[in-house]
Structures are given as C-alpha cells and as structure tokens.
Amino acid sequence: MSRFLNTFTSRSTLGNQFRRLATTGKIPVTTGFSKKFQHGPSLGDFLNNSSEISYEEALELKETVQTSSVKKTRQRLPTWLKTEIPVGNNLTKIKKNLRDLKLHTVCEEARCPNVGDCWGGGEHQTATATIMLMGDECTRGCRFCSVKTNRKPKALDVNEPENTAEAVRKWGLDYVVLTSVDRDDLPDSGAEHFSNTIRKIKEKASHILVECLTGDFQGNLEHVAIVARSGLDVYAHNLETVEAITPYVRDRRAKYRQSLAVLEHAKKTVPSLFTKTSIMLGLGETDEEVLQTMKDLRGVGVDCLTLGQYMRPTKRHMKVTEYVSPEKFNHWAKVGEELGFKYVASGPLVRSSYKAGEFYITNILKKQRTQSIDPTVEKEQNIGTIP
C-alpha cells in the first residue's frame, strides 16, 4: 500500500510539473526550503536527540530553562549601573568631527555607558574619545563584544593616520586613546598602521600623551615591539577575564598566556612604557581566580589595572552571571594597591579606556617626566579607585 502511495505521489507531482511547464514554458526549480523539507530530520531524530552540548551552550541555556508553571523573573539592573542618556554640545561636536573624517570610536561600537561623561567633559572638563583604527569590522568574534565581525574587512584607509592626528589636534586633548579592531587578515595585524598614527599625532601635538590599546598581534612579539617603539606613552592590551573561562569568553585565537606575553614584551622593549590592562567581572569567575590574575599581571610588570562590570551588549551575547557590588570593586582596588600596581581603577562602570583613569595616569606620567629632568623630585605612586 505504501509503495502504491509513493508511486502515486511521485506521478502526481511529476504531472503537476509538466502542466506548469506547458502553461509557463519554465522548468520548475526546487527551492532551498523544499530541499530541506524533503531531506529534513525524521521523527527518530527528535526522539533520540541526546547529544552533549558545549560549555558555551550550557552558559547560554542555564538561565533560559522554564516550565509551564513557573515564569522566570527578569533580573533588574542595579541602581549603581544606571546612567543618564548622553547629551551635550561637546558630544555632538565630537560625533560630527568623527563622521567628517570617517573615523570610528570604540565608545560607540562597544556601546560604552560612559560616552556621555567622557565626550561631554564631565568632572575633569577634558573630552576623551577612544578612536578605533582600521575600520569597524573585526576578524574575531568574542562573545562579549558588539563590534561587527568580518573575515575580510575593507582595506586600510591610508589617510587615517593623518586624519586621526588632525582630529586629535583640533580637540585640544591632553590624552588620547587609540585602539583597533583585530585585523588578522593583515601581514602585521596592523602594527605599522598603529605606529604611523602615533608618529603623526606626536608630530602635530607633541605634548599629547598617547595610549594604544592593541590586540595580541596573533602572538607575534616583533609586531608588539613595532608599536612599543613608536613613541607612545601607555601600552595597553586587555586580558578581559580570568584564565579558566578565557576560551568561553574570548575568540579562540585570543589566549590568556599569549596576552600576558604581549604585555611583558612591551615593557621589556621599552622599560619606561606605562603598561595597562583590563578585566571584566560578572562572567562567572571566582575570587581566587581574580586574585591569581592580578598576581599574574604584576608578574609581567603591568603598571595599571582597570576592573569593571561586564554588561551584555545584546541578547546575542553572553549573559551576565552576576552584578558585582561596588563594595567588592573597592575590595579589588585595595588588593591591587597591596600587590603594587601604580594605579587601579575599579568600579561597576569603569572601562579599559576611562576618562577619570586617564586623568590619574596623566599625573603619574607627568611626574615621571619631571623626575627624569630633575632627579631630586621624589617619585610618587598614585592609587585611584573609581566607585
């Protein structure tokens, strides 16, 4: 009987196709959907679906499991993480300058909660924007980051170093942060582009302190050295999280030990460089792991550490495991002081490039410059805590 039905169905379908050909003169084309429908999973596939899932998948699912009788209560954002909508004349001016010069900022791409304060002037009345070089498409796909990804981003803009330097000069900044998307598609991962931009800035405004927040250059320490020798003042590279959960947070090409090696080599290449990194909390790390991470950073001579709350940029990204309290952030600031960091910025809204932090670092670097000119000036260390 089943054989008869199959034959009848096939002949009926074939007949319909011939009739369609006769009336339209076109051969029917099987769509992708129909192919999937014809060769889709069987009932057995649904009944025997017992395959294991990865840690990443478990992390995504653990907060979404629901029953018909219990509804999950939506977790409210703590009061200490709520920020005002960014407004202001300075913010509008900087945005216009960026668009006119075809520049991008990580402040916008990463949806930073401090953009209104940093661009608007705020407490220190100094506008700060972190300019993102080499386009707005990254060759990597970290699970915490909202920057667009593309295996083959657009070619580098040869005018970007000049445009960036001109923008920085117009803003009248004392301190500028340059960062970039990861460009694993380039032979040097963008090291020379970084270096050229820094030199252009120093040519146009030698007084400006320049911080570069770089990628890991795929572990190529020669490329790290190119940036370190370019004349910058602060070499930053973010560790992002503790070692145990690095594979689940960062792109598979970004490794914990590799990042430590980048920071260590930058300091060895130019010992006077101020090295800096950042880690996020609220991703499922333990206190013991955070402490060990801080010790690892001091072991490679990192001068500055920032700790901030991970904030989920979209529903497609990792969920927040915990909203860490301001008191815990203050605790880590004290631990950092005890471990010997020259500066620690620790708070829920602190980010790797944070204006208040740059204000403190500026003071440290200026004192170091003064000491190099006059050795009798006592060397001081500043520890900053951002509540």
Main sheet summary: 8 strands, mixed
Mean pLDDT score, rounded?
75
Strand order across the largest sheet: 1-2-5-6-7-8-9-10
Tell me how many strands there are: 10
How helical, in percent, are the residues? 40-55%
| Secondary-structure class | alpha/beta
Shape: globular
Task: Describe it.
The chain is 42% helix and 11% strand. The protein has helices spanning 2-24, 32-38, 43-47, 55-61, 89-100, 106-109, 115-120, 160-171, 191-204, 221-228, 246-249, 256-269, 287-299, 326-339, 355-373; strands spanning 104-105, 130-133, 137-138, 148-149, 175-180, 209-213, 234-236, 274-281, 304-309, 343-346. An eight-stranded mixed beta sheet has the order 1-2-5-6-7-8-9-10, sandwiched between helices. A two-stranded parallel ribbon has the order 3-4. Mean pLDDT is 75; it is low at 2-14, 40-68, 119-126 and 377-387. It has 387 residues and is an alpha/beta fold. Helix 8 runs parallel beside helix 9, helix 9 (191-204) runs parallel beside helix 10 and helix 13 (287-299) runs parallel beside helix 14 (326-339). The termini are far apart. The protein has 15 helices and ten strands.
Which features would summarize this protein structure in a list?
Lipoyl synthase, mitochondrial, eight-stranded mixed beta sheet, 387 residues, alpha/beta, 42% helix, Lipoyl_synth, iron, 15 helices, 4Fe-4S, disordered N terminus
